Amino acid sequence: MSKIKNKTTLNLILIFSVFALIAAYFIQYILKHQPCNLCLIERIPYIFSIIVTSICLFTRKFEKFSLIILSLIFFSATLIAFYHFGIEQGFIKESLVCNLNDENNSLSKEALLRQLKELSVSCKDVTFKIFGLSLATLNVFITLVLGVITTKLFLTYDENK
To answer: What is the pTM of this model?
Structure first.
């Protein structure tokens, strides 16, 4: 069985990360599903993975270091996605992360009307599903797999060079 080279895997991770962000923005702006604050936070690891992978591929340096950074990024993303999944399922209580834009300090009539007009989505509300699974649930599995792949590549770096 032939081994997949590190560069090939890094290219696939780059392509997948770009695709994940494009899909998220497509769902938000074209399909008009408003994301919650955690959904927006879950995009950040993909942005970091695009930056790290691009630097690694274009400079052709720091490949082994990039793999460990990518592993940390994807395992962190798994924790964030699992936290979001827990809020959706109700076994984790919604926190201040879900209410970043909350302005309950002001009780003026104008502020209350402005809040009512804004579409604020709770982190526990699932507004979009694929194959019956929320995007947070899918993100748990995807980032976990990507974290395992990058960790395996790091551990077997010299064999797959």
So the answer is: 0.83
